[in-house]
Amino acid sequence: MGVPDDIDALVDEARAAIAAARSTEDIRNVAALVSGKKSPLAAASRGLGGLEPDARKEAGRRLHEARTTIEDLVERRRTDIKFEELSRQMEDSRVDLTEFIGGSIAAPATRGHLHLVTQTRDALEDVFVGMGFEVAEGPEIETDWFNFGALNIPPAHPARGMWDTFYLNLGAPETTVLRTHTSPVQVHLMEEAVVDGGLPIHAVMPGRCYRRDTPDARHLPVFHQIEGLVVDKGITFADLAGTIEVFTTAYFGPDIHSRLRPAYFPFTEPSAEYEITCTICHGEGCRTCSQTGWIELGGCGMVDPAVFDAVGIDPDQWTGFAFGFGIDRCAQMRHQIADMRALTENDFRFLRQF
Ligand code: DAH
Q: How many CA atoms lie within 13 A of 61 on its CB side?
């Protein structure tokens, strides 16, 4: 093969092929095609031998120029491709931080709401505040004295068995427990009242409690109670029953009523269990209420004189009543939640309903 007349055309063809290369592999193949041993350029160089010396010199110079241009174009394209590939790689592995700034761009931040148990606690507080009660709180870690002793439950008293307990520290310097009920807050309020001259007391005390219970449809090992305490002059069991009934109809609705059944608690005398009309069957009798038409919500009674003695209040001057019931149980009854465990499972499909 001779030297092509139009070396410029040969360079133009090479230029187009080089520009079309998209990857490192492409450019390697194109380089072989346009400047390798089998390229038209190499063939042309081989054809130089058949030319006259002058023509050979001239053609040789032009072919050398063409080779330099082509090799230069290949090198430049190779560098560009490397850069393009690196940019693509970086783009692919880039973390889009804007996704996490102030919620995501893809889906706007949704506003949450209070958990049903918190809503229930607030609603219960509202009812009692409307009846003239104050709201107080106490610690979740209690000493043996507050959780048991002052409430007329001495060591080894069988009533301790009613509250399966998480002990944090046994014995010296002091036994501490995760409180098993909110009743110890009664003791705190009464002790403070004795020191500050803060009697009479009309208070409700909501809070979290702990028991060594296995979770089931109606029990949680971590749950919530609301305690009530009235200490005043001339308080009777009728005040207790009236308060419970007013609360029940205010919170559950006019067709739900309360009844008190004799029971035993060491810190009240007499004591009663507090039941409300079953909210599932409205008193007809169903599986949930074991066909009785009533559901137990908590306990109550007149403050035992032994408790007054423990905190230093004169039981001949003052009388009082107390009650305590489950906040989670109230939520369950009011909203007809079949299984209480739903309250702790954080399933949005459940929580969003309230
Ligand atoms: N603390 C009791 C419990 O958790 C409930 C209770 C019963 C509270 C009688 C009271 C009461 O204030 O007077 O089972």
A: 5
Pairing of strands 222-232, 258-265: unpaired
Give the residue, by CA position, lying nearest to ligand 1 atom 7. 299
Integer Cα distance of 251 and 228 in angstroms:
15
Given a contact cutoff of 8 angstroms between Cβ atoms, the answer to whether 205 and 227 are in contact is yes
Kindly give, in sequence order, each residue whose CB lies less than 8 Å from that of residue 204, ignoring residues fewer than 6 positions away: 124, 125, 128, 133, 134, 135, 136, 226, 227, 228, 229
Ligand 1 pocket mutation pick from 237, 244, 323, 329 by most atoms within 8 angstroms of CB:
323
Atom of ligand 1 nearest to the CA of 183: 1
Residue 131: which of 243, 239, 279 has the closest Cα? 243
Per-residue pLDDT for the chain (354 aa), expressed as one digit of tens each?
456 678 888 899 999 999 999 999 999 999 999 999 998 888 888 888 888 888 888 888 999 999 999 999 999 999 999 999 999 888 888 876 665 555 555 667 778 899 999 999 999 999 999 999 999 999 999 999 999 999 999 988 888 877 878 999 888 889 999 999 999 999 999 999 999 988 999 999 999 999 998 999 889 999 999 999 999 999 999 999 999 999 999 999 999 999 999 999 999 999 999 999 999 899 999 988 899 999 999 999 999 999 999 999 999 999 999 999 999 999 999 999 989 999 999 999 999 999
Is this structure's pTM higher than 0.90? no
Look at strands 222-232 and 201-210 and give their pairing: antiparallel
Please give the distance, rounded to the nearest whole angstrom, from the Cα atom of residue 152 to the centre of ligand 1.
12
Residue 294 phi, psi dihedral angles, 5° rounding: -130, 150
